[in-house]
Amino acid sequence: MSEADCPECGATVELHDDIEVGEIIDCGTCGAELEVIAVDPPELDTAPELEEDWGE
Amino acid sequence: MSEADCPECGATVELHDDIEVGEIIDCGTCGAELEVIAVDPPELDTAPELEEDWGE
Amino acid sequence: MTEHDSQTRARRRQHQPADQSVVFANARRRRLRADGGQPPVVVKIGGANAVDPEGAVDDIAALVESGREVVVVHGGSTAVDDTLERMDIEPTYVETPGGVTGRFTDAETMEVFAMVMAGKLNTELTTLFRNAGVDAVGLSGVDGGLLSGPRKSAVRVLDDGTKKIKRGDHSGKITDVNSDLLDSLLDDGYTPVVSVPMLGEDDDEVLAVNADADRSAAAVAGALGAELVVLTDVAGIYADPDDPETLIESAATPKELKSVKDAAEGFMTKKVMAATEALEGGAPAVHVGDANRDAPVSSALNGAGTKIE
Amino acid sequence: MTEHDSQTRARRRQHQPADQSVVFANARRRRLRADGGQPPVVVKIGGANAVDPEGAVDDIAALVESGREVVVVHGGSTAVDDTLERMDIEPTYVETPGGVTGRFTDAETMEVFAMVMAGKLNTELTTLFRNAGVDAVGLSGVDGGLLSGPRKSAVRVLDDGTKKIKRGDHSGKITDVNSDLLDSLLDDGYTPVVSVPMLGEDDDEVLAVNADADRSAAAVAGALGAELVVLTDVAGIYADPDDPETLIESAATPKELKSVKDAAEGFMTKKVMAATEALEGGAPAVHVGDANRDAPVSSALNGAGTKIE
Ligand SMILES: [Zn+2]
Ligand SMILES: [Zn+2]
Fold first, then answer.
1. Any idea what the CATH number is for the domain that residue C204 is in?
2. Contacts of C189 (CB under 8 A, 6+ apart)
3. Staple C218 to which of B5, C277, D70, D264, CB 3.0 to 4.6 Å?
4. Which residues 165-194 of C are in CB contact (within 8 Å) with A?
5. Does residue D216 sit at the B interface (CB-CB below 8 Å)?
6. pLDDT tens digit string along C185-208?
7. What's the CA gap between D287 and D164, in Å, rounded?
């Protein structure tokens, strides 16, 4: 179990062991969607807002 | 050895045994360039004038 | 695989209609003809493999001959699939959190996409039109920035139940249409034949990216104030997708439009979405009709199929 | 394989210069600028793989920015070879009775040729120009009948010493350039980026066929009355092809031109033939210069390389 700081509210976010780059995690404190941008050491950034599209 | 008529001068043109479609033969009588357009039975037509080009 | 064959698969993929609002940044102006005549027509046809274009080509030739301005927009993703397979490139399919499955367009796939769409299909179709007496000019969305807008390189995907951001996608959203380029070609008597890719605007560069052909056609129709004819391989939009007897002939009020949207399933959802975008963009009417009937374009314009306005 | 690497092979193939006379059927008119300024420039560059276009792109962007009208024509047969190989298509090479070896363009090869030239390379190059601030519009010779002329489907070949007619070739000879289309795009501020295929006229149809990119550039320069800049990977035409010290700076009389022709070997023969066609077609001057030097186009226009007029 590792942890990283939420870039939105500064709270500590607990991370499960097998996190992968690109994974989206919810901050338990402020609820922000966070993207795992590095795993060793783990680093989080605010996940981009992406509208879901209806395909090619 | 087969033969066919020259479409230019009407003379008989002697053909060797293994002629192929597309082959160009000279008429021994009028000198015209003739294209083999069929082999069984053999048939000749005037070969198209094609300018040689200097490549793609 | 015809468009019809893929209906079931498409239906499974398209659970959730997404954001429908498209705001075109460029000034939208309707083409005003000196003779006060009819607006131009944008015709969306499939690629060579999806829907046989021959009937549409002859019909469009007759329309152009009669003086109507026409812009053709074509798709052809089955031909892209064929070429990917031929080149031993395995397409990557991704599922969005909403359950929509789509092909992920990585750099290599994008290259094939551009080759097939702008090189093979556009050239073939332009040649078909020229043989029918139409002075066709093929263009991709890159040319003159014809179809442009922000690139989307990141997509949200569901990977084994885990939500992830996947980067490196080559797709985009059309927000601008260079209608001046089309106007100028139309004024000179040409018939533009338009294909994706579009021109995607990234942070510090532009690049060719994937876009949906139906939406491209909708964007063009909106920008030109043109009637849009979307040809497909069924007679129009059915209230019951499995029953041709339930063809919806027209939708001219918001309420009617809503019932069309509710009726649309599978790949038809995309057509209805595109229709909505075209109307919102400034198109006076959208017709969804059968590509394989006689005179498919003029029939659709004359009321066969489904008319949405 | 760079153009330079293939010089030896090309030299072996090109024993016999062939017919040089090209008569363009369309009325040839020089572009007259209201300001009495300089004629347009047609720049022939390689495809993405043959000669790195980046230097040329920035230089052309500066030229366009300064108000000069530019049309770009590109080749790229090594990229076609790469894609044929990727698709497991074995190219057929044929030898003419005169000893020139060339690739036979059957239907399948033609399809790949169109994909790569008009789809991949043209899109890439148009995108490069747009990133450099040039409002580029990619066109193939099929679009608007830009480059057209009779298809040649039959070629004379030497097959194991036997002369034969081989049919089914997809190539053609450019006799018409739609200069109106180029003029109109130039007038609107666009920079056309032109690639083969050309539009071949067969008995009862037109179709996309192969044509040489250097000759295409020559045809365009002739039709526009434009200066032609042919970029290659050596500094110009050398009196001794192996000695850069023997660069021929200019040829302005028939006698000087003949000495250039005598000096040209290998792939340079093609450049000189194209130059001759351009001049006969109405181009005021042709420059053969190095694609890989700084500011390759403006340098060539300013006298670096070989100038033929
Ligand atoms: Zn937080
Ligand atoms: Zn005879």
1. 3.40.1160.10
2. C135
3. C277
4. 165-167, 171, 173
5. no
6. 999 999 999 999 999 999 999 999
7. 38
